[in-house]
Structures are given as structure tokens and as C-alpha cells.
Amino acid sequence: MSAIESVLKENRVFEPSETFTAHANVSGMDAYNALCEKANADYEGFWAELARDNITWKQPFTKILDESNAPFFKWFEDGKLNISYNCIDRHLADKADKVAIIYDKDDGSSENITYRQLYERVCQLANGLKSLGVKKGDRVVIYMPMVADAVVAMQACARLGAIHSVVFGGFSAGAVKDRVKDAAAKIIITANESVRGGKRVPLKATVDDALAGGDCTSVEKVVVLQRTDADVAWSDDRDIWWHDLVQHQASDCEPEWVGAEDPLFILYTSGSTGKPKGVQHSTGGFLLGAIVSMKWVFDYKPNDVFWCTADVGWITGHTYIAYGPLALGATQVVFEGVPTYPDAGRFWHDIEKFKVTIFYTAPTAIRSLIKLGADLPKKYDLSSLRLLGTVGEPINPEAWMWYYQIVGNSRCPIVDTWWQTETGSNMIAPLPGAVAIKPGSCTLPLPGIIADIVDESGAPVEKGNGGFLVIKRPFPSLLRTVWGDNERFKSTYFPEDFGGKYYVAGDSAHRDENGYIWIMGRVDDVLNVSGHRLGTMEIESALVANPLVAEAAVVGKPHDVKGEAVVAFVVLKGERPHGDEAKRMAAELKNWVAHEIGKIAQPDDIRFGENLPKTRSGKIMRRLLRSLAKGEEITSDISTLENPQVMEQLKHSV
Ligand code: 7RM
Hints:
Blueprint: E1 4-5, H1 18-23, H2 29-41, H3 43-54, E2 65-66, E3 74-75, E4 80-81, H4 83-87, H5 92-95, E5 99-104, E6 110-114, H6 115-131, E7 139-143, H7 148-160, E8 163-166, H8 173-183, E9 187-191, E10 193-196, E11 199-202, H9 203-212, E12 221-225, E13 239-241, H10 242-246, E14 258-259, E15 263-269, E16 277-282, H11 284-296, E17 305-308, H12 315-327, E18 331-335, H13 346-354, E19 358-361, H14 363-373, E20 387-390, H15 397-407, E21 414-416, E22 451-454, E23 466-471, E24 481-482, H16 486-493, E25 503-511, E26 517-522, E27 527-529, E28 532-534, H17 536-544, E29 549-559, E30 563-572, H18 579-596, E31 605-608, H19 622-630, H20 646-649
Parallel strand pairs: 1-28, 5-18, 7-8, 7-9, 8-15, 9-12, 12-13, 17-18, 17-19, 19-20, 20-21, 30-31
Antiparallel strand pairs: 2-3, 4-14, 5-6, 10-11, 15-16, 16-24, 22-23, 23-25, 25-26, 27-28, 29-30
This protein binds 5'-O-(acetylsulfamoyl)adenosine.
């Protein structure tokens, strides 16, 4: 077996400041190591103590981890709880008037919602849903804009023990239909329209389309939030306005006490090919992962103003908007808009306006904001910030440095958080008052997360070599199964190649001499150039390190001699180059990569676009780029791309 080679060297290290460490929830490396040792010494006891200390249980659990039917693990199985109770009710005694949600609307206006108001809104909707017959275990599809009421809808389902399946508000009718059918949803909650970047998107009409063929026989009612003044088609016996549904409902609603293993939600991951997988999460374990990571990684303190810019259509919006911050009684910003509206200063403007202390966003947003206005953050007072975070993709060191210096004013640690829809909460990330950070590395696993990097036989690789990222012991926030498909769950995540014992993440990674983990990309994206197995991340980082480059993606294309040749898709900070200018730039970038990494990683083919094809959550679609590199016709549906028009630009080599 040839290991995946690591070719990029990054030597910068940033220690936590003394003041940050002094106040941190986990203060210093000794404290971090002590937690890890505690987990090693008594793994179940470690998690049980956290679960007792952080969750309010209606009925305490007596069983901790049940591994008898691996990989269908159970945690805290006989415990009873309600996650909505944990996120709202338990704060009412001392935080009823604290702002829970600053709803930051697309047009720049905002609305504060206190914990008491949130409680009332959630209870009223829960009562309304109950009146429609929703009960424990029923599935509810939520297809909504990023309004505060999206969180209310999720919390209301959780209050009833109903299983929500949030479908991102940018998805097509076909995607809605597939998900509704797979989960056999009884209710759909939507809005007449969403508003993003000043543009209106017809959500209700899309739901109508999804239901039109009559395939979705499970759906009984469609609840419609009136977000705008737009009229919508109406089906009298099926559709009901949200405001009518809640109007006469009581503002108290006894939570449904569910078992810790009862499903909290399903979230479909598109995956690179095939039918979307309904990732199914538990109630107790998921909540625990959200809470401990808020404390450890985000170093949450009662005075923080937390802002996670994700959409609730993605796991990040579940864990770090809908549940985690609320479980801790935090004040958080719920952002409806887009980072570029009314201009590329929106994030910085709103950080100043709401005095945000913890800011969590994606590398793709950072890179595009550098391209659109690298100096814009300097126009705003960002001194309230104390911690920055990233998630979703490897962050290349150059974008990291900009985030650190220009946004964080070289004061704020950056938590680069590696995790997945399937893991439910952060797995590998620095605890910011303990672990020194390195640009581009997600650093070390959280205490109690037994991550390793192994070869095809499951044996740990040598430091410096790349391999498969695995988690060797079950942890509470891990997905429980793929909805309705236990076989797919087993074969995808606990494959026999690795003895069926490890959770296999599907990412390649390597460890450096300090044991720090560097994600190299998805295993499916690894290139094989003349027998060298190269991750995508490092070549992309080298390209972005060039001062003229804003973004880059590399893929392999078949090559007679080398096996595969590197093809690079590049977005420049300035205009997209044409003709001789493009040829000159391409030659310069080829030399640049040869110089930064070595000849083996040098692209044979460079193509320039104004952007790269991305999923709606901002991940680069390398599968499409591979087809373009090979000169194949794109036959798959690209209508759900954020930016389908760039595909044409990227067809042609320079
Ligand atoms: C949270 C989320 C998961 C995949 C994962 C990785 C990539 C996520 C990082 C990262 C490098 C990171 N869930 N990924 N975070 N790669 N560094 N900090 O994104 O299910 O949508 O995607 O995203 O490949 O497997 S997800």
C-alpha cells in the first residue's frame, strides 16, 4: 500500500495568550491532557459524568454505553429527557429576560427574542402541531428561510418528540420530494417566500411542486409562515398559515419526555453520488456533544454573543444554532442574509453592531470576502471579538492568516473545527486556551474522541504519512444509523476493510511531529501522480499562497505516463484572465507550485474561472471538476449549484 504523501510544510505556531488561557474553560495543556487521561482511564465514566453534569434529565440513566449490537451503539439508554426543555425551560428561572436570539434580518433590521419569548413561541407552535396530530416519532420536514422561526420550528418538534428533517431552503422540488418520501413525513413546515440578499425565493410554490405528483402520500398538512407579503396558491384542506395555527394556542406545553436514544432528527447528506443518506441522530448523545464542544472549543461564557453563520439546513446550523448555544443559555445571532449583501462588509458590520464575541464561519466565505474586500474589516470596530472559528473545509494557511490578522487583529485564537454531519459535533479542534494553533491544522482531538490515522489494513501510519481518518471508539454524538437503511450505515461508516470496528470518516489526513492532525481532503479525491498519492488540500493551499490567487481546486485526469496529471481550477483575486495574459499566469502558477511543493505536484493544466462550482453549503464539487478535466459532458443535475454559470468558463484549458 502506498501511503498518502504529505508535501506541504507549515511552520507557524501561535500559542494562546496568557490572558486567554487564564480565563479559559479548559486552561492550559495540563488541563487538556488531564481530561484526555481521564477519558482514557475510564471512558464510560468520563462521558457519564459529563452527561450528568450538563444535561437536565427527567429520569437519570443507569446504563452508559451499550456495545452489544455494534456498530449500533447506545448511550444513556434508560435516561429520559427533552432537548427543548434543556434548551429553554431550564433557563427560565434565572435567564428569562436574557436575549436568546438576535434575529438579524436580510434587510439589516433586527429583532431580539428573549428566553421567555422563545419559550412561548415554541410552546404555541408545539401545541399547534399537536392539534394537527403530531406526536412522538412522527417526521416533520422543515423547509424554511433562515428566520428565527426556523429555530422555533425545530425546537417545537423536539418538544413533542417528533423527528425533524430540515431541508435547506435552496433545494429544488425534487430534493424536497425525495426527502419527504424517504422519511414519510406527516407535516411540512415552510414559508411563503424566503428573502436572501434582497432576492425572494418561492418556498411554498416549491413545496406545492414537490407534492404535485401525488407521490408524497404521507403528508397531511403544510404549515406556512408568512415571511413576505407575496400571495401563494392555497389548498384549503391541506395548507394552514402558521399565524392561524398558533393564534389560540396556550403558551405552555408540557414537553414529551423521550428516551436518550429516541431519534431527535434526520438530516440528509447529499454524498458525492447516489441517493441522499438520512443521517439519524439521537437525543441524549447529540445534546451532550453540542454542549461539551460549546464549552471546550468555543470556550463559551455567559456574556458571550455567539454567531454561527451557517444555515439550519446543514448540521452546523443544527448543532451550533438550533441546539448548542440555547442549551447553554447563550445570546446568539441568527442571520437570515448573505455575506455579500448589501456589500461584502456585512459580517464585519454586524459583528460591530451586535458586539459579537465568538464568530464561526466557513473557509469558502472567508476566501470570497478576501477577494471582494480584503481591507473591509478595517473599517469596522471588531474589538468585541475574542474567538474565531472555521468549519466545512480545510482552511488554507493564507486565508487563515488573513482571518487571524485582519479580522481577529492577531488577538483571537482560531478554532479550526473538523467534524461531519455524521459526528454531530466537533471532533478535532483546538481547545483555544490550551492548544497552540497552526494555520491549516485542526490540531488535536477533543478529550474522549479517540481519533487516529490508519492505512488500508487499519494499522496506524507513521507520523508524517497520510492515511484514513478514523475514530476508534463510539462517542455519544455519533449518528445512530442511516434512516431506514441499517446495512448502508454499516457498510459506509464501519466497513469490513477496517475490521468493522472503526468509524471511518472518508477523509484523508496526516499527523505532524507534534501529533497535530492535518486534513488532506476526501479520500475519494486523492490523486495518484506517478505513484505519489497526493491529497487535494496541499496543492490547493500552495496555489492560494500565491498573492494573486483567491481560490483553487485541483483534481486528477488520466495521463498515459503519470497515471494521473494534476488539473487546477483557479480563481484570481482580480479579473479572470484571457488569452496571453491567461497563458502567462498559468505558466507562473505552474512554476510556483513546483517551487512551493515540488515538480510532482505541478499542474499540467490550469483553468481560470470567476468562481468554482460549490454546493449550497460552500464545499467545492470536485466530482464535477473531474468530469470537466476529462472533457466529459456534464449530465448530472447542476441546478442545485450555488453558481452553475461558472461551469462553462472552466471547460477550457488555457
Ligand atoms: C461540519 C460539516 C463534512 C466534511 C468532512 C471534511 C470537511 C469539515 C473541516 C473539513 C477540513 C475542517 N459537515 N470538513 N470541517 N475539512 N477541516 N475543519 O462540514 O457533513 O457537511 O461535511 O467536510 O471533508 O468530512 S459535513
